[in-house]
Design goal:
The protein has helices spanning 15-23, 42-46, 52-71, 76-88, 94-105, 121-130, 143-156, 158-164, 172-187, 200-205, 207-218, 224-230, 252-256, 262-266, 287-295; strands at residues 5-8, 28-30, 109-112, 135-140, 195-199. The chain has a single domain (5-295), classed as Rossmann fold, CATH 3.40.50.300. It is 50% helix and 7% strand. By secondary structure, it is an alpha/beta fold. Helix 3 crosses helix 4. It is globular and about 55 Å long.
Length: 299
């Protein structure tokens, strides 16, 4: 099969938009959040989420992908049949599930951006064991805007708040730092060219420059028609809410507005590492976070 493209980043890093853009390239297929590296088998990944609230939302992307690829539609009925398919194939190794996707999409690069992959080191290790030659896009966003975006999202989604509870994941700074430290550690010894790191702010504010560069890296078409297709993430079958039985599978803000606003994105700015944090009154970034951020090119 084609080597997939896996986007690694914490949540709120523009990954739904970036995945959908790359996935609309004629030589690619953008998946929703399938969360397959959370277990050795399909059943293991399916039952890996530690809390019921996370488990429900974490399954939507896989069900939507199966419904779409098997039947060309995402309805309550096709989602029910996707559930049945998962039950029948729960013993399949993770790679076999990806091979099944590959058969269904043809000779296209599968693109996955499941943020849960960076929840634990073992998940990233599994990714690199299943696909040792995988293409990895390490997508970054400034820790301040990432944290502010995460807090804003939580305030509007009670399900997400229940899923997080009182765990360490409540601190956006800690989540951001741990995620990027893990990604940098796990990709440090990969062969040159296997991993591309890119600032989400830079990518989205200058699509005409960075999208062709990503295409060149993946060795896929760079012509105007191919790049123009990437400018339309709203054409993805996973760019809007799914049926009531599987509504998510992507960032909720992206699902409500998946169209590129080039004027707004052209003015996308990086904030500063200096000053107090909105979510911890009177406190600023820890020295460890500042070091990681500066290593990623943020000030």
């Amino acid at each position: 099969m084609q080597q997939p493209l896996i986007i690694l980043c914490p949540a709120r890093s523009f990954s739904s938009l970036v995945c959908a853009m790359i996935g609309e390239h004629p030589d690619c297929y953008g998946l929703p959040e399938v969360n397959l590296f959370l277990g050795d088998t399909l059943g293991g990944a399916w039952n890996s989420f530690p809390k019921p609230a996370m488990r429900v939302a974490g399954k939507d992307g896989l069900l939507r992908a199966l419904a779409q690829l098997h039947e060309g539609a995402q309805t309550n009925d096709s989602i029910a049949r996707a559930n049945e398919w998962v039950a029948r194939h729960s013993d399949w190794p993770v790679r076999k599930v990806f091979e099944h996707f590959q058969e269904l999409v043809g000779n296209k690069i599968l693109v996955d951006k499941s943020p849960a992959t960076i929840f634990k080191r073992e998940y990233v290790e599994r990714l690199l064991t299943v696909f040792p030659n995988v293409n990895i896009l390490h997508l970054t966003r400034h820790p301040r805007s990432t944290g502010e975006s995460l807090i804003k999202l939580r305030s509007g989604f009670e399900l997400l708040n229940r899923a997080i509870g009182n765990s360490a994941a409540r601190d956006p700074e800690r989540v951001w730092r741990a995620a990027h430290m893990l990604i940098m550690t796990m990709t440090a010894d990969l062969p040159l060219g296997q991993c591309m790191r890119i600032k989400g702010e830079a990518l989205l504010s200058d699509l005409d420059t960075y999208l062709p560069q990503i295409c060149e890296w993946l060795e896929i078409r760079t012509d105007a028609d191919a790049v123009d297709a990437m400018m339309h993430p709203e054409r993805s079958p996973y760019a809007t809410e799914g049926p009531p039985s599987a509504p998510r599978g992507n960032d909720p803000n992206f699902l409500s507005n998946p169209t590129i606003d080039r004027t707004r994105l052209a003015n996308l700015k990086e904030p500063t590492l200096e000053g107090a944090l909105d979510w911890r009154q009177g406190e600023s970034f820890a020295p460890e976070t500042r070091r990681v951020a500066k290593q990623l090119g943020y000030q």
